[in-house]
Amino acid sequence: MTVLDWNHQYADLPGLNVHYVRHGKGVPVILQHGWPEFWYVFHKNIPELAEHFDIIVPDLRGFGDSGKPGGTPSIDDYVADLKAFVDYLGLDRVGIVTHDVGPWIVQPFARQNPDRVSGIFFFDCPYAGVGDRYYAPDHIKEVWYQTFHQMPFAADMVGSSWENCRAYFAYFLAHWAHDPHAFDDDLDAWADNYMKPGNLQGGFDWYVAAQQMRMRFIRGDVSDLTPITVPTCVRWGERDQVIKAEWRDRMGEFFTNIDVGLMEGVGHFPHYEAPDRANAEIIKFFSGLAG
Prior knowledge:
By secondary structure, the protein is an alpha/beta fold. 35% of the residues lie in helices and 17% in strands. The chain has helices at 46-49, 75-88, 102-112, 144-148, 154-158, 162-176, 187-194, 199-218, 270-273, 275-290; strands spanning 8-13, 16-24, 28-32, 54-58, 94-99, 117-123, 232-237, 258-263. The two termini are 27 Å apart.
């Protein structure tokens, strides 16, 4: 794998300074991380993708080296951040690759700004059609952390020491990846990142922001969601334990132009667990749109 001297940049948005890494040229494609992640989760993808596209990899508000505005954010804040970021970069249209937390942001952004998005590529995508399956009796054990992260003491507990922080993230990364050792080489980097001031709370704030929408989808209150018309590709890790592959069954109700498939032998992080295969799928999708 090519090793890059990472090109770190900052976007000074209204009320928020966004850190991002940018490499390559051509069609702009944003890689948007989830939780428990930050931009570096894509370090295996950036070099190859940058040979084909203008690759832009930001940290969400509260994450990584992006700003921590404080207060209680809403989903609308993250959507507004994405629009302001695209505007700051002077881009008329962008492709977006994301998973986990990211689809909660990208889906409303695409509904509101379909002319600004050339294509969407999801790995393991939460969406309204999952419904109440997320909190089903046999699955509740996988999502306990979403409630814990909303507790006012959660960040202090997890961040009580570097070792404690590392152990917390090691659990999720090992449990959600198909190979429990997939992240072993990067666990120190994860602990270092989340022990930076504000990063634990910044990440946990996402779950406060998302709670209202999550409950709405669980209740099935989705009648006002118009289908997304932007060309969309989904590749789901067949071994994902937290966002299950069988939940892809209703995506056709919420996307009018969608290609859904499985990636065998990987869990929740296909882009990290199988970067060569993930890169090939991303390149094929966005190159096809350009053609």
